[in-house]
Structure formats: C-alpha cells, structure tokens
Design brief:
Blueprint: H1 8-12, H2 18-31, E1 35-38, E2 44-47, H3 59-62, H4 67-82, E3 86-89, E4 95-103, E5 106-116, H5 123-131
Antiparallel strand pairs: 1-2, 1-5, 3-4, 4-5
Length: about 140
C-alpha cells in the first residue's frame, strides 16, 4: 500500500495515520477479521477493536525468539520487498495477510489481517494451533 507523503509524519512518529487506521478498521469490521499494524521490528503499534485473538494468549506469539514471531517478521519483510500483499501461514496453520506501508520508498511496517481460517474449521487445524501454544487451560 503506497501512502500519501503527508501521512509520512505520522509513521515517522510510530503512529498509524488516521486515514489508514479508518480503512483498516472498516476492513476488519466488514471482513470480521482482526487487523493489526506492526512496525518493521514486529512491535505492535495498533489493532482493530478489542476482541482477543487466539494468538494473543499463545506463549509462542509473545516470545520474540519463537518461530511464530520469526514468521511474522519475515512476512513483514516480504510484504515490503514485494510491494504487494503477502499471504502466509503462521506456525499454527492459520492464514494471515501482510500489506506493507510504504512512504518515500521506505517500509514503516505492515498491516496484518488475521488470523483467519480458509473454509471450515477442522480438528487438524485446531490440533496444529494447539501445538504452538502453550495456551492457558481456560483457552482450550
């Protein structure tokens, strides 16, 4: 996603420009998919809504050295390199879509939509997701 130069100031301050925030929030609402904005180092700077995501309670998501986080960082990088949306599977087998925010030829991070399930939820998907935990017992 290429943005207008006047929004680059917000990105330089580590903020998601209002126009981009509104578009991402609208997409999240219509598609019923969580949308998050990460900077290039994988720090979460913004998220749509307050609904928890299955990833939020997984220890692997919070561990910066985990395969989960490395996949996220690599996807942010690939989206910037490609200059277009990059669709990827996380370690739990769920689909995510990363779109880089570019300004003046520089990536400021990526908007990531997901996790989402393509098709019906299968037991094998749940088993794979649980394997990347651990999750708190009440999450099972």
């Amino acid at each position: 996603m290429s943005i207008l130069p006047d929004t680059a100031g917000a990105l330089a301050r580590g903020e998601l420009p209002q126009e981009v925030r509104e578009a991402a929030a609208a997409f999240a609402l219509v598609a019923e998919v969580p949308v998050l904005f990460y900077d290039t180092s994988g720090t979460l700077l913004w998220r749509s809504g307050n609904d928890p995501r299955v990833c939020d309670t997984a220890a692997s998501y919070r561990d910066p050295e985990s395969p989960c986080r490395r996949t996220l960082l690599s996807s942010i990088h690939y989206a910037a390199t490609l200059g277009e949306a990059y669709v990827f599977l996380c370690q739990g087998g769920l689909v995510h879509i990363a779109v880089s925010l570019l300004s003046d030829g520089r990536s400021h991070g990526a908007i990531v939509a997901g996790p989402l399930i393509m098709g019906e939820l299968k037991e094998s998907t749940v088993q794979k997701l649980l394997s990347v935990g651990p999750f708190p017992p009440d999450e099972y």
